[in-house]
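On clarity, I found the account of how folds are encoded harder to follow than it need be. Since the whole study asks how a given chain folds, the encoding of that fold should be made plain. For illustration, here is how one protein appears when written out as sequence plus structure tokens:
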Amino acid sequence: MFIWLPQTVGAAGVVGNVYGYFLLVGFVQFPGYFSAAYLVEKIGRKPTLGSYLVLSGVFTFVFATSMPGVSLFGVALSGFWPFFGGLLAASFFSLGAWGAIYAYTPELFPTEARATGNGFAGGVGKIAAVIGPILAGALVEIGYLAALVPLAIAFAAGGIAVLAFGRETKGEPLT
């Protein structure tokens, strides 16, 4: 989502220095990480990761629908504040989810398979990290909504899957 930020800011007609936006996007990631680190111990890994992923999807959708001339099923959020707020909130929650994944994922594997399982899951994630920007670049030719809505759906679907089917590992002994 953030790799295309210079083009997105330009296409949205948002005024200001694009590097200022990068700085702010990076700045809100720190509280995203710290809040997730606190919440995985306070309320648990599953609800933290699931809710952060769902909220990443919601705010990525807000960000996507705030682009000029964009409307999806009659939903159109235009203007600076939906764009800016959606961008910052998506950054906060997506990087918080990233932090929660590192607490949650290793605990899902038994001790004898933990390194292999976590390494495999990380490898699959790296494949997606390579394919994602290429796919988004191709879809951005259709429009920013086409490029960002699949990401919003993936975030939300992942969060719903964790909330519905995930196993809470907080307080469980590692086997």
Observations:
- The chain is about 75% helix and 0% strand.
- The longest helix spans residues 114-140.
